[in-house]
Amino acid sequence: MSAEQAVAWRRAMKRMVIGLIATSLKTGHTAVAEFRTHRIMALVRASNGHEAYLAIVAEGVPDPQVIALLLDCVPGVDRDDWQAEPSAVAGLNPGPGEVIWSTLFPSEIASAILDLDDE
User: For the chain, which ranges sit under pLDDT 50?
Assistant: First the structure.
């Protein structure tokens, strides 16, 4: 893959991730997209109206570098803030072929994502 193709691929992935998160924010449901040969999902959950969590689900993505890139596409979330599921925090269990990562999702990051999705 050329450098230009890699940059275009990353831009497309970031647009897709932002769109998925924005859709989940607006609907309260899991948003799903196909990206290349992968299935990517985003789910925003609010707990007691105070803390929100974001889960990113990757299905059919065996390469840890692609998963790291996927998580890096979420603006405002540091790589050290992600945790693998299942965990006691979000309580999600991966299905066959799925990898789930979750993080706390502050309202200011949610607002920024909705703004980016409108651009």
Answer: none
